[in-house]
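sorry for the late reply, my laptop died twice this morning and i had to redo everyting from scratch. anyway the thing you sent over, i finally got around to it. pasting the sequence first so we're on the same page, its 526 residues, then the predicted structure underneath. double check i copied it right bc i was rushing
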Amino acid sequence: MQVLIADELPDICIEILEKAGLKVLNKPGIKADELKATIGTCDGIILRSGTKITAALMEKVDKLKAICRAGVGVDNVDVSAATKKGIVVMNTPEGNITSTAEHTVALLFSLSRFVPQACASVKAGKWERKKFTGIQIAGKTLGIIGLGRVGRQVAKRAAGLDMKVIGYDPFISPEVTAQYSIHIAKNLKELLSQADYITIHVPFNSETKNLITNKDFSIMKPGVRIINCARGGIISEEDLYHAIKDGRVAGAAIDVFDVEPPVGNKLLELDQVIATPHLGASTEEAQFAVAVEAAEQMADALTGKGFRNAVNLPPYNIEEYNLLKPYIILAEKMGSLLTQLTAGGLQSVDITYTGEITRRNICLVTDSLMVGLLKPALEDGVNLVSAPHLIAERGIKTNITTSSGLSNFTSLITAKINTSTGETILSGTVFGKNEPRLVDINGYGVEAVLDEHMLILFGKDKPGLIGNIGCVLGNKKINIAHMTFGRKKSSGNAITIINVDAVVPQECLREIEQLDHIEAAHLIHL
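ok and here's the structure:
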C-alpha cells in the first residue's frame, strides 16, 4: 500500500510509515496536475494546509482509503465527498494542545504587564516606567469558557500561578474538572461576573457565534481582561471595541479574528489590544507532534488497527447501516432536542431500546444519539466515530439497556439525560415509510414530526391558548406546517409542539412567552 505525503513533513513521518510496511511517495508541494494523475495510485494521503483534496479529485478514485491532515482543521478536504466515497478523513487534534495553552498564558502575562507596549516604547527611545505599571496575576480569578483539552491545560497552568480558576462548560463532569482545581460556574453569567480575566476555548459554530456581545460585557467586572486563542467570531469584535473604548474592558489579547489577516480592523487601533497572527499552534514542537501523530494514525488505519480522530463516518457494513438509517436519523435528532430542551451541565445519559431494534447493531444508533447531544455545543467534526470518545472524555456517564418488553410500537428508543438542573426524557420511533417521530416528552404522549424548525411550549391546558399562539405566528408571517398537543389530564399541564417553515425570531418567542398560561418556550433547530 502506498501513502502520498503531499506537504512538507519531517523525515520521521517517512520512517514511521515505512516501518509499518507502507510505501511512501514523498511529494511535498505537489502540483494540482500531478496530484490528479497520482491520487488514484494511493491508499492514503497525508497533508497540511497547502494541498486541497476536492470532490472532483476523488470522483473516480477507488483505491484511496484514508486522508489525514497534520493539524486540526480539515477545511482543505471535501469531507462530504470523501464520506460518500467511503474515505476516512482524520485530523490530529492532540499535538497542538500544549502550544495553544502556553500561548494563552503568554498573552495573559503580556496583558498584565504591557509587555508589547513597553517593548515598543523602549525601542522608540522612551523610558516610561510609570505609564506601564501592571498588575500581578497571583490571587486573580481566571474564567475559562470551554473546558476541553486546551481549556483544561490552561487551568492547570493558571493554578500553578496561584490564580483562582472558574470554568463554564455544560459538557464536562465535576469529576473531570476536580482534577484541575476548577470551580464550575452554574452558567455563563456567573463566570462573566466573577472573573478578572476571561479566556475562550470553544469551537466556532452556530451556537458560539457572537457568544460574547455587549450584554455580556455589561455584567463583567470593570477592568476585566479578555483573551481569545480559539476562533474569530466567538466574541463580537464591534462590541469588544466599544467596551474597551468605554473603559469596561481594560485590555484584550487576540490571536484570532473574524477576517484574517485583520486588515482595517478597528481593534488594532487601540493601545489596550495585543494582537498575534494566529500563533496558538505555531511552535516547532507542535508542528513536529502533529506530523508524527498523522503518520501514526495513517499507519494504523491502513494496517487494520483502526481509525483515530476520524472526522467523518468510516465504512460500516452497508446493509446494516441502510437498515438502521431511519433510527440513526431519529436518534441524532432526539439527542439534539434533548440538549436544546435542557439547561445545566450534562451528567449522564440513559438509553433504552425496546422491541425489534434490539436485534440490530444498536451501537450505530447509540453513537448517533451522542452526536446529537454534542453537536449543538461542539464543532461540526462531532460524528459517529468521535462522539463516544468525547462523551467519555468529559466524564458523562452512559447506560444502555435493551428490553424485549411490550410497547405500543414495533421499535422504541427512550433517552433520558440528567443535568445539574434536572432530567429530560424523550421517546421516539419510526413510522411508515421511514418517518422519524417523537412519541413522548417527559410523560406527555405526542406524535411530533422532527423537522428543522420547531417550537416546543409547556403550559396549562386552557381554552384559546392554541388560537393565541397561532395568531402571534400568523402576525409574524410564520407558517405552521404541523402541530401536536399533549396533556396528562384535562385542564392540567400540557405541551404544544409546532413545526414551522422558518426560524422563529427571538422577539416572536418573547411575545409567545408572555401569553397567559405559557410557562416555558423553546426554539429548536434540528
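The chain has four domains: 2-94+285-302, 97-275, 316-442, 450-526.
thats about all i looked at so far, will dig more tmrw
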